[in-house]
Design brief:
The protein is α+β, with helices and mostly antiparallel strands and 114 residues long. It is built from 2 helices and 5 strands; from the N terminus they run H-E-E-E-H-E-E. Helix content is 20%, strand content 22%. Strand 1 and strand 2 form a beta hairpin. The mean pLDDT is 96.
Amino acid sequence: MMSCIFCQIANQEIKAELTYQDHLVVAFKDLAPQAPVHQLIIPRLHIKTLNDLKQEESSLIGHMVYIAQQLASENKLTDRGYRIVSNCNSEGGQNVFHIHLHLLGGRQMNWPPG
């Protein structure tokens, strides 16, 4: 879906500060960070919401979480702690309709998140 900003970032049609990429996912720094470390991990495959995830795509989520853990390690967050967030649909806080994970860290996270 070419009108999707995350698809355009994954295809390098829009510049982003990439922190990781492979044949399945792309990670980049969030433009409006909510923590000292705030990166987004997106699949190259356009999947609108978690509700649209198919069984055969479920391993993709595991890969995304693994990459988030690797990025947390690179940013020295593993001992301090970090948060991985995925929002689904409008009331869940999703505002870009392409599944993604937020990796947040470098400060104390509060609960409940809001």
